[in-house]
Amino acid sequence: MTAVSEQIGTWVSEFTRQDPAAPWLQQLREAAFRRFVDLGFPTTHDEEWRFTSVAAIARKNFPVALPKLSEPRPLGSGPEPHLAKYASFHQNPFVALNTAFLNRVAVFRIPAGTVLEEPIEITYEATPETAVHPRTLILIGANAQCSIVETYKGEGRYFTNAVTEIVAGEGAVVGHYKIQRESREAFHIATIQVHLGRSANFSAHSISLGGALVRNDVNAVLSEGTEATLNGLYIVNGTQHIDNHTVIDHAKPHGTSHELYKGILDGQAHAVFNGRIIVRKDAQKTDSKQTNKNLVLSDEAVIDTKPELQILADDVRCTHGATIGQLDAESLFYLRSRGIGKEEARSLLTWAFAQDIVDRIKVQSLKDSLEGILFEKFHEHAH
Amino acid sequence: MSLLEIKDLHATVGDREILKGIDLAVNAGEVHAIMGPNGSGKSTLAQVLAGRELYIVTAGAVTYDGKDLLAMAPEDRAREGIFLAFQYPVEIPGVSNMYFLKAALNTIRKTRGLEELDAFDFLNLVKEKMKLMEMDQALLNRPVNTGFSGGEKKRNEIFQMAVLEPRLAILDETDSGLDIDALRTVAGGVNALRGPERAMIVVTHYQRLLNYIVPDFVHVLSEGRIVKSGGKELALQLEESGYAALGIEDEEEAVGKV
């Protein structure tokens, strides 16, 4: 226990080192920090963190730095409505820690009925040997349409602890893309908290490529007639560890959710997928489908995949499935029998596995750049 | 020396021996038909020649163009001019037919010391060959064999063969599942590729295909051995009197005759 308080202790000095903020913000920070101290860093005894040890993060004493983002916006003297109203810091210590260090926030407001043709792009670039707590708030009015691309990158060792809150009004159509390209030495912990209005249509695409230790939480709360799509692609090798936790909360009737997460694992990498689907008592006529597919390219890579269905309504359709497989021997032979080399054939089939996730990306420029990145990555994997 | 020489070839899958001593010599310009009932080892022979690692060669030797074929990786065999038209072409979602075939063709051209084709020349070549096979060009942009009908898959195999121009083509039951029109088209595509430099091994259960692709030699395979060889008339004889007349059991024959 001494170890734990020592770990928290370094955060106490970082917390008190912060410049004073407006009273509303200071109150929020303090409440969150108190909660963080109470919760402490999670351990693998905690069911939510069973497969992911954050001991390496707890041991590191990176000084806190302000996030470098493409469109910085310091918080004002008046309270920011909506901020910290959705991503609760009561359960998740990392959300609490992020809230305790609130400073700059990327806030985007899309007025009702507005259709944005161009995507909103936010890039967070971490500074080596620091801890950063990026915070993003996206508020989309009723019937507005937009796409958001959040990119995380950096060099060297650092700790990114990000929280994004998305609130979409009735009938809004929103595409959210998160591209995690952190350095191979980085820690990346992130929560995306989404609240969706009636008949809103939301799709999330989580592409996770970098990081030494990565945990993504995507939590979506649906309303009546809401359609939510959660897509994910994680590609890990070496000793990378990635944990994707998703929660889809069908709170009201007639909601639809589709979830497809695909993973490609090589080396001694470890991936975790935990997909919880909650169908509340009122949420009749819910239609929910969850799929997790994993391609394991080495003998030493490990995948832990777990669906968690909590269904309290009786007139619903919920399906889930998980697969873990290797490259198909027949497909490999077919390609080779046409003169395509073994390594080339392997990378082609690996690419093919990821293809349908990439195909679902509707921002063309992002799709193009991602195709280039993946193409290189699979060649590097194969050789 | 023959283009292909098979000597006392034995092969197993798991602990089951399928090929029990095959001897066969194929010269450039010749078409050899290999007939036999199901389970006689026809498809195994085709796959072993193409390099399928599922089968283990336990004895014997195969030389191709003077080289030890069995020591070559499947892709090297293809680059040296061997082509297997699969009995069950594999569906590969996520890889476009066009990308796949262009990669294959350019690898093979490189081995032959030819320049790689650019997108424009490749498309022209492909269009010409698709016409020959009466194939819908839309299939080019679809993933390899994915969602193709049985007939489309077989046409796609012969189309690939027409583009890759092998020296030794092995057709594994290319006729199975084809209606008569499709069979004519496929056979037409195969015949267009016949030539003095090219050899073919046509594996089939029924004589029907051989009405359209007339072989120079016919071999009958039974229980992993060639039990009879002859000219094209041997196929006709088999059609009339059946495998049983050669003392070969064929569980499918009754069905095939209906």
List keywords for this structure.
heterodimer; A: 383 residues; alpha/beta; 10-stranded parallel sheet; 9-stranded mixed sheet; globular; B: 258 residues; Rossmann fold; 6-stranded mixed sheet; 28% strand
- Overall pLDDT confidence of chain B: 93
Query: How would you spell out the order of helices and strands of chain A?
Result: HHHEEHEEEEEEEEEEEEEEEEEHHH
Cα(first) to Cα(last) distance of chain A is: 46 Å
| Tertiary shape of chain A | globular
Q: What structural class do helix, strand and pairing data of chain A support?
A: alpha/beta
**CATH class of chain B, anyone?**
Alpha Beta
Give the SSE map:
The complex is a heterodimer of chains A (383) and B (258).
Chain A: H1 2-17, H2 23-39, H3 55-59, E1 64-65, E2 68-69, H4 93-100, E3 106-110, E4 120-126, E5 131-132, E6 135-140, E7 145-154, E8 159-168, E9 173-181, E10 187-196, E11 201-208, E12 213-222, E13 227-236, E14 241-250, E15 256-265, E16 270-279, E17 287-296, E18 302-311, E19 317-325, H5 329-336, H6 342-359, H7 364-382
Parallel strand pairs in A: 1-5, 3-6, 4-7, 5-8, 6-8, 7-9, 8-10, 9-11, 10-12, 11-13, 12-14, 13-15, 14-16, 15-17, 16-18, 17-19
Antiparallel strand pairs in A: 2-4
Helix pairs in contact in A: 2-4, 5-6, 6-7
Chain B: E1 4-13, E2 16-26, E3 31-35, H1 42-50, E4 56-64, E5 67-68, H2 74-79, E6 82-85, E7 92-96, H3 97-111, H4 119-132, E8 143-144, H5 150-164, E9 168-172, H6 180-192, E10 199-204, E11 217-222, E12 225-230, H7 233-241, H8 253-257
Parallel strand pairs in B: 3-10, 3-11, 6-9, 9-10
Antiparallel strand pairs in B: 1-2, 1-4, 4-5, 7-8, 11-12
Helix pairs in contact in B: 5-6
